Amino acid sequence: MSEPALYLGWRVAILGSTSLQLLLLAAAIATQSPNARANRLLTAFLIVLVGVVAPYTLGYAGAYDAWRGLTFAPLAIPLALPPLLYAYTHALVRGRRPDRFGLHLGPPLIQFGYFVVCFALPPDAKWDWYTGGHRHLVGPAFDLALLVSLGLYAASCLRLLAAYRRDLAEARSDDDRFATGWLTRVIVALVAVLAVYAAFTLWDWLSGGIDFFQETGLYLALVAIGLYLGIEGWRHATLRFPVPEAAPPDPVPAEPPVAPDWRAVATGFDTRLREAGWASEPDLSLPVLARRLATNTGRLSRAINLGLGVNFSAWINGVRAEAVASALDGGSTGDLLTLAFDAGFSSKASFNRAFQARFGVAPSRYRRHVSHHDFPPPGPEMRRAAG
């Protein structure tokens, strides 16, 4: 009797090598102690993703044709991917797992248990069920559940990240360091894969079955997204993401208070900030500045929002941009990035954005034209923060 033949083609090479890289990244991320909760959840996500790809890697190699007993091997649990991605996002920006996280894992545990039971069936019964009830009933139900789950969790992740960025902009001047744009791109890419997967599923239902070789592009895209997420997750594994603190409620006064002149209050805070040079501190935060101004975070935040019409990040970075512009006005020939770091910016990207927002031009253009008399001066009012 001849040995079963396996086919190690380009699909197996790409999926297999990428799966190995994902496992190596998962191991590296799991060893990082900062953001330990988030890192463990990302590790779990990457391992589950490798499991989701594994049946296709084995299938392209001909393993299921050679060993039909592998049918229903509980390797792929795709229903675990959406809740793990959401839990990772939540742990990253909130410092903890979602409430009642065990309930989120109910559907994937049911899916895993189903595959374990089916895998234990006698070979003939297993194959009959795979080609019958599973293919026509259970498989489509799992596909539909995955589509709904990924859509709902992706929307929840995007809302969570948007709220986090708003909270950071109200509390920190270095919020750009924690913008999590890479995670947003991963989620958007997964939604795109969701659309492709939905098209394949619909095609499968309408045509009565498609060859899994026709799904090659889908799984190549999936491992590419996973690899990007793993690399970015590893790059950010040691960056401790701040958790914005909720402002304490103001005490209830005995009589209705007279509304303060927030413009005047904000002007006073702004003057003291500039005189003390506190804006040059890269990690300046709302609580730190409130203590130095001998006020509370709620009053300071309202003064900035209502008196200046901007959030905390836009205010501080606007002052920093003005410091760079002042140096250029004074004839400084220093490197722009050096001037930006001296002013308190933590990255080139945040400097360019803040300068453009404050003066309406890029810093390099400002430098080129600053000596021209017809160069329009910056507006006296700080521009309103976007969003």
TrEMBL record:
Every HTH araC/xylS-type domain range: 263-369
UniProt KW Transmembrane keyword: yes
One Pfam family recorded for the sequence: HTH_18
Record keywords, A-Z: DNA-binding, Membrane, Transcription, Transcription regulation, Transmembrane, Transmembrane helix
Membrane-spanning residues: 6-29, 41-63, 69-89, 101-122, 142-161, 182-200, 212-231
Residues annotated as signal peptide: none
One Gene Ontology term of the molecular function aspect: DNA-binding transcription factor activity
Gene3D superfamilies: Homeodomain-like (1.10.10.60)
InterPro entries membership: Homeodomain-like_sf, HTH_AraC, HTH_AraC-typ_CS, Tscrpt_reg_AraC-type_HTH
PANTHER family: ARAC-FAMILY TRANSCRIPTIONAL REGULATOR, HTH-TYPE TRANSCRIPTIONAL ACTIVATOR RHAS
Protein name (record): Helix-turn-helix-domain containing protein AraC type
